[in-house]
């Protein structure tokens, strides 16, 4: 069968259309689908990127908010009490508030109890105080409550004139313990061992005591209440070669407030007492938790953790500044030698070249006192030498 020219043309057109459609279907339509798929993937990636950026921004904002919340919590912790379940803390605090001899109070404490505020459980204690005082003394007492860093609320206050110059009345104080919320339990006071009255010379006279002799000290550095009494000069250092240095360190509160009026400058300074002075001088941070010193054979001589000897030993030991002896003892009541002082000061001052002789020569030039440690560093150091040495360190560093 012959195909006409017209049919051939139509057939060629059909083949061309078929080829064009096939090419279009393979090349254009499929590629468009791929392109659209890639566009969708790109859009998805961009959306994920935007989401990630939003999460990053949200995280940064959350971090900012978290820091602000932690700051508020920290501020809240500092402004309220904890451990009021141990009533000893509050009794000691009230004792300090009532130190004015012209104020005649009668105080009653309630048992600590739990209260629920905004679905949070806290502890509370109420103190009722009946008083007789002058107007000025009452106002000063109230100001002490208001200015104290831990919040003390005055719920009730009554005042009446007992006489022309005296007032009488009562008020109720409320204190709140937020430790069930914050989880922190901070002490206000620490008791210390009376190591300064440990006599290395059994024939020495007993130390005279101040009438307000105390065995505890306030440990909150941010409080408005200053519990350590002003330094009262020692009676046995007048005319001593180290007198000025001893008084200088006394004013700096380096020595424990034991109430002793004797410094005993020529007695040997014990390892424990030297550590305490270093701790109070350099203000080592208080350990969050006590280091386990029970491995030392003489750990019983350290006393309880709240004691100044233990606190200083713990602080110094944790910092790597205090080390034990080879026989596995700390020996806090043994006299410290010039050699042990050298080893400790090299760690504390981070100076491997530190020598006692360097400071002994300075002491000799300034006071004409010749330290036995110049000739023999294995000998024990006296309290006066230790005090003058710390005084020189303070002068060097403008402390």
Topology summary:
Layout: H1 5-78, H2 87-97, E1 104-109, E2 113-117, E3 120-133, H3 135-147, E4 153-161, E5 167-177, H4 179-182, E6 189-191, E7 216-218, H5 243-251, H6 271-282, H7 308-318, H8 338-348, H9 356-367, H10 383-397
Antiparallel strand pairs: 1-3, 2-3, 3-5, 4-5, 6-7
Helix pairs in contact: 5-10, 6-7
Could you give the distance between the termini? Answer: 121 Å
SSE string: HHEEEHEEHEEHHHHHH
- Categorize the overall geometry: elongated
Uncertain stretches of 5 or more adjacent residues: 193-214, 221-228, 301-309, 317-321, 324-328
Can you give the helix content as a percent range? 40-55%
What does this entry look like structurally?
By secondary structure, this protein is α+β, with helices and mostly antiparallel strands. The chain has 3 domains: 1-78; 87-182, 2-Layer Sandwich (Alpha-Beta Plaits), CATH 3.30.70.60; 189-397, no CATH class. The protein is 43% helix and 13% strand. The chain is built from 10 helices and 7 strands. It has helices at residues 5-78, 87-97, 135-147, 179-182, 243-251, 271-282, 308-318, 338-348, 356-367, 383-397; strands spanning 104-109, 113-117, 120-133, 153-161, 167-177, 189-191, 216-218. Strand 4 (153-161) and strand 5 form a beta hairpin.
């Amino acid at each position: 069968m012959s195909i006409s020219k017209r049919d051939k043309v139509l057939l060629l057109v059909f083949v061309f259309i078929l080829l064009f459609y096939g090419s279009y279907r393979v090349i254009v339509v499929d590629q468009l689908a791929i392109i659209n798929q890639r566009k969708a993937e790109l859009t998805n990636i961009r959306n994920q990127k935007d989401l990630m950026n939003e999460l990053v921004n949200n995280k940064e904002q959350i971090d900012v908010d978290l820091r602000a919340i932690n700051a508020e919590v920290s501020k809240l912790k500092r402004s309220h009490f904890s451990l009021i379940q141990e009533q000893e803390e509050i009794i000691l605090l009230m004792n300090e508030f009532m130190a004015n001899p012209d104020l005649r109070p009668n105080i009653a404490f309630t048992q600590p109890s739990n209260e629920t505020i905004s679905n949070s459980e806290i502890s509370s204690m109420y103190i009722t105080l009946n008083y007789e005082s002058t107007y000025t003394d009452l106002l000063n007492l109230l100001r002490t409550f208001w200015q104290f860093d831990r919040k003390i609320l005055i719920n009730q206050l009554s005042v009446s004139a007992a006489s022309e110059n005296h007032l009488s009345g009562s008020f109720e104080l409320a204190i709140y313990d937020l430790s069930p919320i914050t989880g922190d339990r901070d002490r206000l006071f620490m008791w210390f061992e009376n190591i300064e009255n440990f006599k290395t010379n059994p024939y020495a006279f007993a130390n005279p005591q101040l009438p307000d002799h105390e065995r505890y000290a306030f440990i909150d550095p941010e409080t408005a209440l200053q519990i350590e009494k002003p330094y009262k000069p020692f009676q046995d250092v007048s005319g001593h070669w180290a007198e000025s240095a001893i008084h200088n360190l006394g004013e700096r509160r380096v020595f424990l407030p034991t109430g002793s009026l004797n410094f005993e400058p020529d007695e040997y300074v014990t390892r424990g007492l030297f550590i305490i002075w270093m701790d109070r001088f350099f203000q080592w941070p208080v350990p969050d938790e006590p280091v386990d010193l029970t491995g030392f054979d003489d750990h019983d001589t350290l006393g309880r953790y709240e004691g100044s000897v233990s606190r200083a030993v713990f602080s110094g030991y944790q910092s790597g500044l205090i080390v034990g002896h080879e026989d596995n003892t700390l020996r806090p009541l043994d006299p410290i030698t010039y050699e042990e002082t050298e080893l400790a000061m090299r760690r504390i001052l981070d100076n491997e070249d530190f020598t006692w002789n360097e400071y002994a020569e300075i002491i000799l030039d300034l006071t004409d006192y010749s330290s036995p440690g110049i000739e023999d560093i294995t000998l024990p150091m006296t309290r006066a030498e230790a005090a003058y040495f710390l005084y020189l360190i303070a002068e060097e560093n403008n402390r």
